[in-house]
Design goal:
By secondary structure, the chain is of the alpha/beta class. The protein has three domains: 270 residues, Rossmann fold (3-Layer(aba) Sandwich), CATH 3.40.50.620; 147 residues, Isoleucyl-tRNA Synthetase, Domain 1; 51 residues, no CATH class. The protein has 17 helices and 15 strands. Strands 4-3-9-10 form a four-stranded parallel sheet, sandwiched between helices. It has a four-stranded antiparallel sheet with strand order 5-6-7-8. It has a three-stranded mixed sheet with strand order 12-11-13. A hairpin with a 2-residue loop joins strand 14 and strand 15. The longest helix has 20 residues. The radius of gyration is 27 Å and the shape is elongated. Bound molecules: adenosine monophosphate and zinc ion (ZN). Zinc ion binds next to loops. Adenosine monophosphate binds next to helix 1 and strand 9.
Length: 489
């Protein structure tokens, strides 16, 4: 039933059959957040995308060691080698120790991941806890002749590396074009032989708060280095999957590839997977442009971009309706539609235990399960899984209405389908509905009373109920399927 998994490898630009290096073990590394401020909903999309990969591999029976790091040093502004350290800058601004900033935003990140029901990785290493290893790898790359010391800093020699290796393979950049594009702006970076070179170790000025001793003087590691070092330490010189957001392909992942190859002569990663961006009116959601909002703003509805509050599970369901490798544009309307769809699924699953069953089953449950596996096996195609779950909902409603029959065994298969795909694999738990049980129950009573009033032609009463609910921001709408209600801001 489960079939074979195919993943789109962004390095080879092909869909490839997934074959673990040492089954049943799978090593997966995903670049984690730089903890200098709250994660926005765009960052969350990337981590949710890889949560699906982690969950599905486990569902297939793999023993996954999932490493997702915390960047707590060395990520400089504008991803440049001469910007200010993002964490040190925030520490000055908030008048806190850099490690207080790191702790504060790591805690915040964990809270958000929990709200979205994202599973914790197996290992969550930090860059500052791996300085010894980063210094060792830097030395190794110098010894191999692919890095040079300059004025207390160590730079990776990209042009030298590119003579014998393919630099730019992942991002599709051509070394000659990169060289000519960067020739002119060497100003202010004279420590480097070429502005394409990137820092493995950076000399710290005396006022730089975060600095450590090294063979090259006091300094701090370059951002790209930590991922090469920590993935190698915990997953080995070669491992199965490396993930991250699409925007990290260049220079971050390209530099990681070069560092690994230079240090130990091997291609470290078998499958590169990249999650696409969450956009807002077509533009990448980003802190630097101010076009972003925080998960907490969505959960409370306190944002100019939304008309009401949305639960974390509704937001997660909204994200599942788009393939991870496609851009997803955020809009209030799309979230409203997702909320409605999610409620339909929950209503149908609630019907399952009370369906009238018969010997003869007219629902093709095998086909529904097969379609869900085929979709997940096709590079984690969650929107297709959601479409199949909606088909299952249709079938349940047909049985409920008495237009189709279903057997006890097939009810159990459908129950398993929702448990496996909605809850375990897509990570969507119907908790929200449980919390609202009382409200839902009360609304059912009130709407029944209104229905009775209408049937008895007591329109004064039915209108009164509608108006008084409206005063409480509860809007009701009569549809063919019955009366629906929503709570509006
Ligand atoms: P950062 O903390 O900036 O390193 O970002 C953490 C992760 O979020 C990285 O994998 C980024 O690629 C990802 N990311 C940043 N912006 C977005 C966005 N608008 N949509 C999806 N992922 C994003
Ligand atoms: Zn990384």
């Amino acid at each position: 039933m489960q079939g074979e998994l195919y993943v789109y490898n962004t390095l080879t630009k092909k869909k490839e059959k997934f074959q673990a290096l040492t089954p049943p073990f799978v090593g997966m590394y995903v670049c984690g957040p730089t903890v200098y401020n709250d994660v926005h909903i765009g960052n969350c999309r990337t981590f949710i995308s890889f949560d699906i990969v982690f969950r599905y591999l486990q569902h297939l029976g793999y023993k996954v060691r999932y490493v997702r790091n915390i960047t707590d040093v060395g990520h400089l502004e504008n991803d440049a080698d001469n910007g200010e350290d993002k964490i040190a800058k925030k520490a000055k601004l908030e008048n806190l120790e850099p490690m207080e900033i790191v702790q504060k935003y790591t805690n915040g990140f964990h809270d958000v991941m929990k709200a979205f029901n994202v599973l914790s990785p197996s290992i969550e290493p930090t860059a500052t806890a791996h300085l010894v290893e980063q210094i060792e790898t830097t030395q190794q790359i110098i010894d191999k002749g692919f890095a040079y010391v300059s004025n207390g800093s160590v730079y990776f020699d990209v042009e030298k590396f590119a003579k014998t290796n393919h630099y730019g393979e992942l991002s599709g950049r051509k070394i000659d074009e990169l060289i000519s594009a960067t020739r002119e702006n060497l100003d202010g970076q004279d420590d480097k032989k070429s502005s394409l070179d990137f820092a493995l170790w950076k000399q710290a000025s005396p006022e730089h708060i975060m600095q450590w001793n090294s063979p090259w003087g006091k300094g701090f590691p370059g951002w790209h280095l930590e991922c090469s070092v920590m993935s190698t330490k915990y997953l080995g010189e070669q491992f199965d999957i490396h993930g991250g957001g699409m925007d990290l392909k260049f220079p971050h992942h390209e530099c990681e590839i070069a560092q690994n190859k230079a240090a130990n002569g091997k291609e470290a990663v078998k499958y590169w997977l990249h999650a696409n961006m969450l956009t807002l009116n077509g533009e990448k959601m980003s802190k630097s442009t101010g076009k972003f909002f925080l998960p907490s703003q969505l959960f409370t509805g306190e944002s100019e971009f939304v008309s009401k509050a949305y639960s974390p599970m509704t937001v997660r369901f909204f994200m599942m309706q788009c393939h991870y490798a496609s851009t997803l544009d955020f809009s209030d309307e799309a979230l409203q539609a997702a909320e409605k769809g999610f409620k339909r699924i929950l209503a149908a699953t609630a019907l399952l235990p009370e369906l009238k069953t018969s010997e003869n089953s007219q629902v093709d449950v095998t086909e529904l399960s097969k379609r869900c596996y085929d979709s997940m096996n096709d590079d984690f195609n969650t929107p297709m899984v959601v479409a199949t779950l909606f088909d299952a909902v249709k079938e349940i409603n047909l049985v409920k209405q008495g237009s189709k029959t279903i057997s006890v065994e097939h009810v159990a298969v459908l129950q398993k389908l929702f448990n496996d795909f909605l809850i375990d694999i897509m990570g969507i738990i119907p908790e929200e509905e449980k919390g609202n049980d009382v409200a839902n129950g009360l609304m059912e009573v009130i709407l029944d009373l209104r229905k009775d009033a209408k049937q008895n032609k007591n329109y004064t009463m039915s209108d009164k109920i509608r108006d008084e609910l409206k005063a409480l921001n509860i809007v009701i709408k009569d549809t063919k399927e019955g009366t629906e209600w929503t709570y509006e801001k």
